[in-house]
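A student in our group prepared the protein record below, which I am reviewing. What it holds is a sequence and that sequence's fold in token form. My question to you is simply how this chain folds and whether the tokens agree. Do not assume that whoever made the record got everything right. I have pasted the whole thing underneath without changing anything:
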Amino acid sequence: MKLKIKLVKSPIGYAQNQKDTVKALGLRKMNQEVVRPDNAPIRGMIFTVKHLVSVEEVK
């Protein structure tokens, strides 16, 4: 299973660790989507920035 992660809100004005997490997920621009494997480290990163991204499962 994979996760499609989309940046829906800008990390500007949020803590540095949240900006770094968005960058580590591979997101640079608003409305950009990336596909990542569904595993514990990725889930933890998503949890850190859950207010900035939308997530859906893809097969």
